[in-house]
Known about the structure:
The chain is α+β, with helices and mostly antiparallel strands. It has helices at 6-25, 31-38, 43-57, 101-112, 123-129, and strands at 60-63, 79-82, 87-92, 116-120.
Amino acid sequence: MGTITNLDFQLMQERLLLRRKRFAEQPPIPKTAAQLLNEMKSESDLHIKIITACHAKGWYVVHSRMDRPSTQAVGVPDFVIATFKGTYFIEVKRKGGKVTMAQLAAGVMLKHLGRKYALIHSFEEFVDFVK
């Protein structure tokens, strides 16, 4: 079974997002259907939106894979994002998603060290956090 690099995976996710956007922009989609397309259906949709937003702003993103157990240390947040204002550590969970003890411990440690850490459940929470 072949493997792909993290960059290839992120690029693939961005291509999928662009296809979804093109589909959502095609008339005549009823308003209710367009609204459904814009809703977050899964954690991976939220990851794609965050990656795309970060790349659009020229930020450096380290993204942990979702398709297999982490090759990083246990509990490492899903995103480490370097911006012009600082570095952010972000754990992403869909609404109702469970946080592991290792993820909670990582968040506590990062906050204790004075780092910017958040557990987010929506794109709006992400935008508010990195303002």
